[in-house]
Amino acid sequence: MKSQINLHVKIITNGDKMAKNKNIEIKGHDGPARMGELGELKTPTIVNAKTIEICLDEPMAYDVPLSLAEWSVEKTIEKAAAYKDDDKSIENTFAVVHGAKYSDLRIECAQKLEEMGYKTLLIANADELVRRPRDIAEIISNLRESISPNTTLCFPFAEASFIPIISYMGIDLFSDAICEFYSYLNIMMTPGSSYNLEKYQIYQLEQDELFEYNKRTLDLVTREVRENIKNGTLRNLVESLSCSSPQNMSLLRMLDKNHADFLEKYTPLY
Prior knowledge:
Elements: E1 25-30, E2 33-38, E3 41-43, E4 45-47, E5 53-54, H1 66-85, E6 93-97, H2 103-116, E7 120-123, H3 126-129, H4 133-146, E8 152-155, H5 163-168, E9 173-175, H6 177-184, E10 187-189, E11 194-196, H7 207-230, H8 234-242, H9 246-258, H10 260-264
Helix pairs in contact: 1-2, 2-4, 4-9, 6-7, 8-9
């Protein structure tokens, strides 16, 4: 028997709870961070990657020439339009925001998807963006300011320690896909870091147990984020996590340096 811990805590599966949702209802801000309700969900939160419905898109790598990125956006819009016209309800469908590394194309794609009626937008190339602090600061801040506040943004691939700062920028949903992916790599996520269990033998877990452990971690972190938004202390949490993460520190510096107006827009004055 490999397991050394009891994973009895129930993890709420959120994918199905969006069934009656259309618009997110914002209940409060802490900077650009949003605390809201999406159907039965309280956001920011985690959604089950296996239960969400994503409309057809045209995937494209991140670092590509402008012409390829434009083609990807054009085809994604065409496929999203065809999906909508195929007598399907798009009320709970995730549409994918493409545009590669080009912020203006991301905005164009998102706005056209909004015009079609898509209310939940998933940001493509998330795995690349997390490694590029300058780009992620520009793309997400520009997206959040360019689309309706009633539109939900989903970042589909974020480590637990990265969720607070991405939430601080206005992301509403996160996927649990990383939990399963990391469980196959034998990587355990904690709120402040991620550990390869071959090197850091904190626990000995089977793959399915590690998957559940990682889901618990994401659930804990999003609950922590919501409570910090409620109490106006999310910035404090983000700064504390940045002290131990060069990735988070670089992103926070980019935000403070290049997007101060965006951060201050909803920040209360005392």
